[in-house]
Structure formats: C-alpha cells, structure tokens
Amino acid sequence: MPLDVAAAVLENRALSADYNVLSLAAPAVAAAAAPGQFVMLKAGAGHDPLLRRPFSVFEVVRDERGAPSGITVLNKRIGRSTALLYAAEPGHRVACLGPLGTAWPSIDPPRRAWLVAGGVGLAAFALLAQALAARRVDTTLFYGARTGGELFYLEFFRTLGVELVLTTEDGSLGECGRVIGPLERRLADRAAGGEPVVCACGPEPMMAAVAAAAARAGVSCFVSLERVMGCGMGGCYSCVVPVRGADGGYHHVRSCLSGPVMAAERIGWD
C-alpha cells in the first residue's frame, strides 16, 4: 500500500533556471520504492494548486549507515505546482504519496539495457541505472534534449559505468538531432553481446518512435508513460491509455495502475 507522508525538504539543488533536484525526507517511501515507480507531490498548503502531481522516484537517499532515508525528484518548472517545488526551501513540508505504479522489468546479464531519455524523462532512469550497475548489466543511455544546458547528471551515469550517447537539437552537445537517430543505427547494427532491452521515457511522440524502431528490430521495449494524473490511484480516470487486448482490439486502462511502465507493443500510439 502507498504511504502518505508530509515529507520535509532536505535539499533543493538547482540544475538550471528551470530544473532542480529536490530531496525529501521519506524513509518509508524510499525503502519501498522500486525503479520506475512514482510519487504524487503537492508543495502548497492551500487550494492552489488543488491536486498533487506525479514525479518519478529519481534517487533513493541513504543515511550514513546506508539505510533509506528519503527520495529525490527531478523537477522542471512549468506551472504552479512545479514552480513551488522549484522554490521549496529546506524544512518545507511536501505532501508525498507513494510509491505508486509498476516498476521497470528486471534485466540481467547477458542481456543489455538501452535506456532512452528525452528531456525530463531522465527522471525515470537514475534509480534504474543504479540497480543495473549492481547486477553488472551492460547499460547505454541515449539521452536527448533541446540544448546541452538541459543534459543533466552525466557524471552520475558515467560513474556507474553507463555508456552515454548524447544528442541535442541545437548541436551544442553530442550529436545534432534527436535521440531516435543513434538508437535506430544501433538497433540496425547491433554489436556482439547480449540482446538489448529498450526502456524509454520522455515526450510521447519520442516514445512512439522508439517503440516503432524496437518493433522493427524485434527488440523488447518498455516505456514509462508521462500522462497527466489527478490522483495517482485510479480514481479520477485522467490518465487513461489505449492498450491492445487479446482479441486484437483496444480498450482503455489507467496508466497510474497498469503503468506507468508498460510494454510498448501493447499501447495504441495513434
């Protein structure tokens, strides 16, 4: 069962004028969280904003003994809720409900993990990369953003032994273009080694393109959906997504319950 706690802000680290990593004291949530799960957060005490917003569990914070003591979230300031989280100061209380949703599938050697992140979709991968490193899984992160100033945590992933393939739309860092380009080339010319499992998170058009490329290559693909969620527990039906049933037709499921991580082949991207 998810936990509902008033989590104190431990640290607020600005990454840029719009991105920050917020650390929250939530040991019980941290102890239960698995890579790919999310929490519902609300920083304001009143009715503005009225609802909580979903955030992937980015990292698990540990104390000096190694015990889980909190979580971090990667936040991009867009609206009222995210602006409050961007400005939150240490000691401020944030309503935190979680962990919620389904986790990434377990990947073990000799299979490889190819992680595909677009922008703030990186939030779904820090905890997963740590778990993969602990299992000695050969891991590559295909990471794209509009500009090099929006590519974060690169040294974090390098320290874990993750290969980085970077793209920017303005060509300021890595390859100029979108992240689907180098992924498609790798899928078409896979080097010797274990078969890759593709895991993607980012804008939905990007994930649809990744899913199509993986399907053409006959490679397993999972995505973490970034649907708008009002409650995170299936009550509001704001996050429905069409999925293919056993009969070949489509029906709708709530991504907060059936996801956010789902097999890409099940989803009706059109």
List the defining traits of the structure above.
seven-stranded antiparallel beta sheet, seven-stranded mixed beta sheet, alpha/beta, Elongation Factor Tu (Ef-tu), domain 3, 2 domains, 7 helices
Please tell me about this protein's structure.
The chain has two domains: 3-100, Translation factors (Elongation Factor Tu (Ef-tu), domain 3), CATH 2.40.30.10; 112-266, Nucleotide-binding domain of ferredoxin-NADP reductase (FNR) module (Rossmann fold). It is globular, with a radius of gyration of 18 Å. It is of the alpha/beta class and 270 residues long. β8, α3 (126-134) and β9 (139-145) form a beta-alpha-beta unit. α5 (180-188) runs parallel beside α6 (204-217). The longest helix has 14 residues, at 204-217. Helix content is 21%, strand content 35%. It is built from seven helices and 16 strands.
